[in-house]
Amino acid sequence: MSLTNATPAYGTLFKMGDGEVSETFSTIAEVGDFEAPDIELETVDATSHDSAGWEESIATILKGNDPSFDLNWIPSDSTHDETTGLLYSILNRVRKNFQIVLPNAAKTFSFSAYVTKFTPKQPVKDKLSAGISMKITGPITVS
């Protein structure tokens, strides 16, 4: 009987760049569940009368589907606040570089995105939290 080689997802980091020339990435604090952005290949129908009776398609562009996640919102945290954090990014329409780093640095997904939604939540019987949505622009690289 062989043992699985599955890797726990716990410890995956969602990082945000500071935009400087020698860019430094900071881990966004208190991020909950999320998925790395999908990488999707767009295709178009290229079927013609010369096709062998089968539909034919050709590949066009790659598209990064947009990540979203919830976090425990800490209004004073530099990765959340209106001075340098996610809130700053949406208020100032700033595109930032992001990285998702899998545990044990197995792989890193890097991309640029705009924060398109910052949804603060203040339930009476729960913690402060926020929902974050992003729009990827440009390529996703995997290293």
Notes on the structure:
The chain has 143 residues and is mostly beta strands. 4% of the residues lie in helices and 41% in strands. It has one helix and nine strands, in the order E-E-E-E-E-H-E-E-E-E. Strand 6 (95-101) and strand 7 form a beta hairpin.
Number of helices: 1
Derived structural class: mainly beta
Runs in which pLDDT lies below 50 for 5 or more consecutive residues are none
Measured on Cα atoms, how large is the radius of gyration? 19 Å
Beta strand count? 9
Calculate the terminal CA-CA distance, rounded to whole Å: 32 Å
What is the N-to-C succession of helices and strands?
Answer: EEEEEHEEEE
Q: What gross morphology would you assign?
A: globular
- Helix fraction bin: under 10%
Concise description?
With 143 residues, the protein is mainly beta.
Secondary structure: elements and pairs:
Blueprint: E1 13-17, E2 25-27, E3 39-45, E4 57-64, E5 68-72, H1 86-91, E6 95-101, E7 108-121, E8 129-136, E9 141-142
Antiparallel strand pairs: 1-2, 1-6, 3-4, 5-8, 6-7, 7-8, 7-9
